[in-house]
Structure formats: structure tokens, C-alpha cells
Amino acid sequence: MTMFTDKNAIVTGGASGINKSVVEKLAVGGARVLIGDINRDGGAAVAADLRAKGHKVEYLHLDLTDEASIKEFAAEALTRFGHIDILVNGAGWSKNTPFVQTTDEFWDKVLSLNLTGPMRLTKLMLPQMFERKQGKIVFVSSDAARVGSLGEAVYSAAKAGLMGFTKAVAREGARFNVTSNCVCPGPTDTPLFGEVEEKYQEAFIKAIPLRRAGRPEEVADPIIFFCGSQSGYVTGQVLSASGGLTMCG
Question: Which of 26, 127, 170, 245 would be 236's cystine partner, CB 3.0–4.6 Å?
Fold first, then answer.
């Protein structure tokens, strides 16, 4: 598979989970990939492993809660790659917490990491995509945005905002041939899901028609679809990859 030959891609959160699978699939497809992640050791290890296999993957530190870090990352990405064809805003985080027990500091972290951080990075990448009249942007939201999620009120709100932002960017980018789409994972076997209390994990899985959590590579596949030429006439769309947890018409 070489569908991404000569394409330059950024994947945030690429040190683990779903986004690690996205990095692998893009790299195997021929793309030059830059991982942006706050996890220095994890991001560097993923990049080194894929380079050892002959792929073009680099790592650069990125803290989506820090505006200065985002600006530095974007500037260095454009310096290294010249231009970016594909931007996967995949990084996300929350902690299962009853809403009444959350704090302002928790709100700030969840909102900045899941919503305003991706917005800032996208704003910095769009001008060169508009100028070149080509680009693929994919946002990784969550089915929590569509149905609400127990113990994830702030996360649900942030990810719902990301869905709306996806559609607005799609409208503004259309005349420049820049597409913007969104994938909503359900419960997926990732390190983040592993931190959820077992009783909540069981409740989530019981609600899934396929009766299991997703595998990272299964959720990565629709993200890859939105990154590639097969989705050239698709923009402003939201697709759930959640084992049937959410069925939207």
C-alpha cells in the first residue's frame, strides 16, 4: 500500500493507542509522518521503531494545553516538512469523574487538550493548505459527544465542540479543496480506557451491540479513509467507530 507516497502528515497523540495505529498505517502507506505528543519517551520510541523498519517517521514534543508549545511545534513542522498535506488531530484525554466533583483546573485541562488545542494547531496549519489548495484534516472526537458519557461531562462537551468545529472548518476549507472530517470512537482498548474503573468498563461494553471494546487498528481505519484519496468528495462528516454504540441517521 503506497497511497500516501509523497504526503506529509502530522498525527497528534501518536505515541499510543488509536493514533499510534494511525501513524503506522500512514507510514506503511508511504507518508512522511511527524508525531506530536506530550509523551517524549513514547513518541520517540514509536518513531524509532518505524524508522528501523524503513519508514519515515519523526517525533516532536507537543503540549496541546500550552499555546507556546503549539506554536513552536507548528513552526518546526513546517520547517522540517515544508508543507503539511494531512493533519490528524488525534490527541485527547479525560479522567472518569462525576461532574459535581470536577474542578476549574480539570475543566481547563480537558477543554484545552480536547478542543482549544486542536483548534489552535489547525489554525496554524490551514494557511499553507489553503495556499496550496489541498489538504486533509481529521478530528478524533468521541461517541461521548453524541450521547453523553457517564462521568465524562466535560469531555463530552469538549468533544461535541470538536464535532461542530469539524463542520465549520469543512465549510471554510471547501473552496480551497481542503476537507475536514471527524471520527468518533466508542470504548476502545487503549491505555486511556484501561484507566477507567472496571465497573464503568463493563457498563460501556454491555451497551455496545458487538459486546466488546474496539481495537485501536479498527478505529484507525476510518481515520485513514478520511486521510486518503477515496474520501476526496467527503467533507464535514462525522463517523462513529463504536461497535454500534451510536447509530445515527
Answer: 170
pLDDT, averaged per 10 consecutive residues of the chain (249 residues), comes to: 89 96 97 98 98 98 98 98 98 92 97 98 98 98 89 95 98 98 83 64 69 81 97 96 71
* Catalytic pick among 59, 155, 200, 233: 155
- Return the CATH number at 119: 3.40.50.720
- What is the distance between the alpha carbons of residues 64 and 109, in angstroms, rounded to a whole number? 9
Is residue 150, in this structure, part of any structural domain at all?
A: yes
Q: Is 155 a catalytic residue?
A: yes
Q: Which pTM does this prediction carry?
A: 0.92
* Contact by Cβ (8 Å): 47, 58: yes
238 beta partners: 182
